[in-house]
Specification:
This protein has one domain. The mean pLDDT is 93. The radius of gyration is 17 Å and the shape is globular. 77% of the residues lie in helices and 0% in strands. It contains six helices and no strands. By secondary structure, it is mostly helical.
């Protein structure tokens, strides 16, 4: 039962973290100058955005869930199953960030789902 909670946390918290960090960086703005002093300024601006901190927290939760599930399952099972984050990422991008997802991307995401299903059914 715990491993399903861990998988859920990896996919949902990890993807939510990535979406929050993306939203934060959209607020901060595009990086144009890659000199060290300018990078430090961008990091400083990013750390003042609440979405960045929410994202870091969510990604931390996902990371520790990954460590937990890797202690009880084979990596050849864990990595493909966590690919469901591609589905969550597309849905989050669409509904949380308002991104447009092309039909070819949805097709690719469907293929990932089929692959995850095959890995899950072949577990043994």
């Amino acid at each position: 039962m715990f491993k399903f909670i861990y998988f859920f946390m990896i996919v949902v918290a990890g993807t939510a973290g990535e979406l929050c960090v993306s939203r934060a960086m959209k607020q901060v703005g595009e990086v144009h100058d890659f000199r060290p002093a300018e990078i430090v300024k961008v990091i400083g601006r990013a750390l003042r955005v609440k979405w960045m901190w929410i994202g870091i927290g969510m990604m931390t939760l996902a990371f520790f869930s990954l460590l937990a599930v890797l202690s009880i399952e084979k990596v050849s099972f864990v990595v493909p199953v966590t690919a469901l984050s591609y589905v969550a990422g597309a849905l989050g991008g669409r509904f949380f960030l308002g991104e447009r997802i092309s039909p070819s991307r949805w097709t690719g995401i469907a293929l990932v789902c089929i692959g995850v299903t095959l890995v899950f059914l072949g577990k043994g």
